[in-house]
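Quick check before the chapter quiz. The format below is the same one you will see on the exam, so make sure you can read both the input and the output lines.
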Amino acid sequence: MRMRKKKNLAEKMESVSDILAVLHSDDPNYVTSAEKKEYLDFKRIFGNDNPMQLEVGCGKGQFVCELAKLNPDINYIAVEVNPNVIYMAAKKVKDEGLKNVYFMQCRAEYLPKYIPDNSIERIYLNFSCPFPKKKYAHHRLTDGRFLAIYRQMMKKGAEIHQKTDNTILFEYSIEQFSQNGFAMKNVSLDLHNSSFEGNIMTEYEKRFTDLGQPIYRLEAYIKEN
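Here is the expected output.
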């Protein structure tokens, strides 16, 4: 079900504008758009040079909020395309008084336009839309075109952590990581019945877990030549 536009959304977005950048490119071609860099000044935004991690598709912000509380010396960039949802996430962070989270409302394809190369030490992909129909596979956030985008931003030794409840997406992701120069570790076909420690639940994850569905998880990293 599509979420209804929140009443007075413009005013609500303005109330969190100190931790939220609404980014729109005039160029519909994300490749040529990224050639004209408009890097955000993260040192100014966060007030420090702490390591940066990125969540693509942050939803209502539960995951990044908990992560930021546990790791005050890491800066988190949370990306979401839906304005209703990103407002709720940003408000949650403000209500918690967290200073190490910043939000970007934009499509993932345009991230290299705004985030410098070799600047991100970890990327989180939590319960991304699976686009189950084959003809829409190129929209999946682990498709090869997105992996190429992430590689630009990733520092040496950086990792991508993925969680999903969708078997098709998980199998597709493993295939795409393998075909695009990534290796994988800590692969789990049932996260909540594994020995993995330190898991932070997302809103979707709790829903799926309550229904008894297994959660798939992996960590991908760029293979050294």
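If your answer matched, good. The chain has one domain: 49-222.
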